[in-house]
Design a protein that fits this description.
The structure holds two protein chains of two kinds. By secondary structure, chain A is an alpha+beta fold. Chain A is built from 13 helices and four strands. In chain A, 68% of the residues lie in helices and 8% in strands. In chain A, helix 10 runs antiparallel to helix 12. At the A-B interface, helix 1, helix 2 and helix 13 of A face helix 1, helix 4 and helix 5 of B. Chain B: Its main location: membrane.
Chain lengths: 387, 269
Amino acid sequence: MHGVALPKAREKGKGTATWPGRLKAIALANRLFLAIVILPTLVVALYEGLIASDQYESSADFVVRHAESGSSSGGFGQLLGFSFGSSATTSESYMVQEYLLSHDAVARLRSQNDLVGIFRREGTDWISRLWSNTPTPERLLKFYRHQVNMQQDDTSGIVHLTVRTFRPQDSYGVARSLLQMGEEQINLINQRTYNDQVANSQRELEEASRQLLAIQGKLTGYRRVNADIDPESTGKAQVNLVSALTANLVQAKARLQAMEGVVAHNSPQYIAMARQVQALESQVAGQSGKIAGPDHSVASRLSDYEQLVIQREQVAKTYTAAAAQFEQAKAEAKRKQLYLIRVVNPNLPVKSEFPKRGETILTVLISLFFAYAIGWLLWAGVKEHSL
Amino acid sequence: MSEQHQRHWLDILIDGLSTQASVVRALALRELQQRYGRANIGYLWVIAEPMMLATVVSMLHAVVSPHGDFGMSPYTFMLTGYSIYIIFRNTFNRAESALHSSEALLYHRMITPFDIMLSKSLVETIGCLSALVLLQGAGIMVGVSEMPARPLYLMGAICLFSWYSFALSLLVGAYSYRIPLVGRLSHPISYFALPVSGAFITMSVLPAWTRPYMAWNPMMSVFEMARYGQFTNASGAYINSGYVVAIAAFSSYWGLLAIRRVRKHIHVP
């Protein structure tokens, strides 16, 4: 052919013009490719097509929310105008996801829903089922994580839960129990945060109320001992009495003075007046002695009493503040309550969508092809070197 | 009679394909030899080169943002972005001198400019792919990376991207042979393409108003696809593979025409 050197394969093929011979030649020339890429793909295809048992997927969407969401913190991303899609509930929602994929949840499902039985239903192929009848918790957890998946959408915070088992009813049942367990976990967290938040302020409130009661008791005791409800008003009444008496005394004294030159000193009228003045004087002296005398007077009692009153006022103020704080803490705790909202309830699958046969086969084919290409490159280089 | 005729037709196809395969294989080996020679690790440079670049860039970003932007591990993020991007960069840059350096080979009748471009493109793709696989494997072993979540998407993205790069390299190869200016421009273009390619950004971190414009960039879609394949929580909302296929098919068609036309202008000594 115009003196052009032809590749070897073509010259070899010339001799055997029959189809089987030609095919054989092609297969022989590409035997490595066939062995590395085509054969394993065929094996996988056979397994997927003939043996692998159907699996059914049930899915549900839920979201974890605060009762009242605060404004999300602005970060570096917001500064640049990027929306990283962080929401305040992300960590709580991770908490639920973490729990539902934990050994704790698996242990609960194992006893509650017979998880091992679900993963080993009759008639399932032995590659995709759970191998052991009594698996260790670790093994079961690994298998469980393979079948149960949770994925959070970063922008909306919605968690997409999928459960895959060999029976539609099983998938549905497990998905439902998972949602319920998530709700219970959230409630537990709520209870805990509520208790932690409120307990402290409640303790303070109780302390204040105890103090208030004590001081009130003291005050009552004081009143009982002194037989006086309110020394302050008693004192005022005393002062009023003394001033009234003094006014009377002054009046009486003035009348007596007016009588001085007109009426004889020994007339009964004058004597009566003088006596009245005398009586009033002694009354005034006695009553004013009660107000501010040296012992047991109103003044000395008043000072004790006022001390108690001031103490009571202080304690009452503390009590009011503590009560307000308690109310606030309760409101705050209520605001921080979490809710698991079911956006989409689990469905009862009807058609088997797993395993994804075509996808698996194609993946195997392409990755083997890539591996072959890389291997070829390396091998060709090595061969060149050995020349 | 008709059977004979059909066999004849198949004969031609199989013969043609096997010849083409042999030629491309031989050219690929020559490419390896020519570029790296036999000194020190020789052809392994084809893997080591992208590997070093990808490692350095990945490490740099792992240090700068250790917590991982966008909920993805920075090492894996940079690795997938960069080692896929260099498929384009290398193919595109080497296309400029491809025909000039292999002109003499065209003396052989069965070697066409198309074969030369294809072999170069294949070597680049497989080299970068090896680098990605090795580095990803190392990352998984060390624990900074994880297996692709949807391998089919990742592999599809790589195939699509290398096709797209090959189609563009055909164009560059064909036109730069006759117009040197095209060759001069191809280097800057490959640098400018980096920031807008989506190798280091995702659609979701861009401001919303830029997204419709970026969607016109086929590379963006490819990288979105690669991310979707690699990361569990990546969004696949911006993958538009049909568009990329259309662009790549159109470029291939144009490129094939151009490279066929250029053959006439090549004077084999």
